Amino acid sequence: MSCLALIARDIRLASRGGGSTPLALSFFAAVVTLIPLGIGPTPSLLRAVAGGVIMLCAVLAALLALDDLFQVDFDDGSLDILATGPLSLEGLATTKIAAHWVTTGLPLLAISPLAGFAMEIPGRSLAVLMEAVALGTPAVSAVGAIAASLTLTAKRGGLILPLIVLPLIAPVVIFGAGIVRGSMEGIANGAALYLSAYSLAAVLLSPFAVATGLRINLSA
Questions:
Q1: Could you list the pLDDT tens digit for every one of the 220 residues in the chain?
Q2: Is the dihedral angle over the CA atoms 156, 158, 162, 168 positive or is it negative?
Q3: pTM to 2 decimal places
Q4: 187 FRET partner, CA 20 to 30 A, in 18, 35, 151, 153?
Q5: Contact yes or no for 143/206 (Cβ under 8 A)
Q6: Is 27 helix (H, G, I), strand (E, B) or coil?
């Protein structure tokens, strides 16, 4: 199976009814809507926490789709077939990461301006918010794939996975919030550069780590 065919297959599975994409988007929309109701309608207070809240919600929403990244294929035996096919495990990992970002990161990016409106982010900073989400979500997909490969055969792996991922993707929330805050305050703080470097490193290195995790679990 070619890389594009595998990505298209994963996109279809994630987008169907009950798939990970509707679940992630529903979670993101629900949490971002509830937080202003809890904090109160004070624009200055909402703007102060908007960047961190939206980035954290995006990260948590993306995590919902990670448990099935390899698990479905592992349970029905497809992963064993893919692992022995012409595509290397590193290539398989890359396609899975790409499919996860297309089915979660890209939709989250598309609806992030609505979250910005809910959190009273000024219109001039909405594009910067989208930039932060666009730069941060690939790192979530990449780092999350590593954890998904390591917990593939673990009991209650879906519960262990977030505990592994969340500390590693803290920079996504920190730098993403910094990008938005810097835009609203008119300060150049270098957060975009730091987040870009982190995401690039995660995307480039994660296929090798994922392949190692898959080899360990498939040979067990």
A1: 577 778 888 778 777 655 677 888 889 999 998 888 888 778 888 888 999 999 999 999 988 878 778 887 787 778 888 878 788 889 889 999 999 999 899 999 999 999 999 888 988 889 999 999 999 999 999 999 999 888 887 776 667 888 888 899 999 999 999 999 998 888 777 899 999 999 999 999 999 999 998 888 887 5
A2: positive
A3: 0.89
A4: 35
A5: yes
A6: helix
**What interhelical angle do 157-168 and 170-185 show, nearest 10?**
50
Residues 119, 47: Cα–Cα separation, whole Å: 6
Provide the pLDDT for residue 209: 93
- The alpha helices in the chain, defined as continuous H runs, are 3-15, 20-39, 43-63, 68-76, 78-83, 89-100, 106-118, 126-150, 157-168, 170-185, 191-218
Q: Name the burial class of residue 14, with classes exposed (0-12), middle (13-18) and buried (19+) by CB atoms within 10 angstroms of its CB.
A: buried
Whole-number Å distance between alpha carbons of 219 and 215: 6
- Identity at 193, one-letter amino acid code: L
Q: 99-113: b or e for each residue (b if 16 or more CB lie within 10 Å)?
A: bbbbbbbebbbeebb
- The long-range contacts involving 192-198, CB below 8 angstroms and separated by at least 24 positions, are 192/131, 192/132, 192/135, 195/132, 195/135, 195/136, 195/139, 195/171, 196/135, 198/139, 198/171, 198/172
